[in-house]
């Protein structure tokens, strides 16, 4: 485990929460999941959490930033907020590892790690999630040789629902470490995570339009030639947005004098697209028409994220990479024939294989394919139409996104399913960490 120097740059742990326990009603970011817990705990230390869990009643669930679309956090009983468990605990300059409190937001990690000479190996373009939630659901960025955040977990510390504190890494409680790196919050409350990082670095971003047919033809080469490559493709447009990221030594670019208010435009065009028959194609062509080629460079943690304020619901599956583009083509032909209105594009990324038991990337390089629908419309017609296509291609759902699979079908997708179940029962024999959603997806009848 990392050493603990006397002084460490800290991440503020008193930042105001968007939702406070006194509000009584908990909502996730998109508003698709709600709960009214009987008790809403907000411990300021692990010791306080231990005392609270020993006195807690009923189901216990944990929330960080509420950025999962699935019902991972809902409970009528006890909800634990990790908002006050933030900050850097320790670091090791030789191994480039850092131990961080699980309630820390990804967006708060960049500067403190930079001061230590470290940076996250990879991250996505949304950075508001808590570290515990991001690792607990295998949240990821993109990159042919880069894994999810769960793949970087080198140790963790959790409190069981009975109040026992457990530390786990590759040498101690190794099975708990393997299960805990992607745990869905089903083992207990993870309070600290040790991440494998790397030396800090700068990135150069290049974003541009290409005809969709050309993107599909060239994407495998783009993924080989660039550290990060992804694209967004609109269902009623023949243009796609491509984004490439590469390490650079170029000087950081200044912030632009004018930035298109992307969230406002997406909100407006979404309401038009879903409110007026036939308008979705016109709105998608408008969005690609407004897009201009963009280049920028800077510290990696400043370049990875993009504004994501227009709210939506999302489904994402990870399919074997060799079938990814074929899956995209079938999705496009199916959606275009259906006449279902859409505004948000399909997103396509690459993620490297890992060996984390419940990671959707276990044992195989994957194509990550995401669908979105703005909150102004019912997401179910689109998601219900496309989900069977993901199954056809051997897809595994992202744990934090919407899907309809249950434990019986999920067990077929994960070689270590029974191992995880055994560790879960060991740490939580009474199933107190399971809400209705988790019982459906983790417990076979």
Description:
Residues 1-38 are annotated as: Disordered. One of its GO terms (molecular function) is FAD binding. Pfam families: ALO, FAD_binding_4. The chain folds into 2 domains: 21-199 and 420-442, Uridine Diphospho-n-acetylenolpyruvylglucosamine Reductase, domain 3; 202-397, 3-Layer(aba) Sandwich (Vanillyl-alcohol Oxidase, Chain A, domain 3). It is built from 13 helices and 20 strands. The protein has helices at residues 46-55, 110-115, 131-136, 174-180, 212-225, 262-275, 279-290, 300-303, 324-338, 380-392, 407-411, 417-427, 436-442, and strands at residues 26-27, 34-35, 39-41, 60-63, 78-81, 88-92, 97-101, 118-119, 153-159, 165-169, 189-196, 198-199, 202-211, 228-233, 239-248, 294-299, 312-320, 346-351, 366-374, 396-397. The protein has an 8-stranded antiparallel beta sheet. Strand 1 and strand 2 (34-35) form a beta hairpin. Helix 4 (174-180) crosses helix 12 (417-427) and helix 9 runs antiparallel to helix 10 (380-392). It is globular.
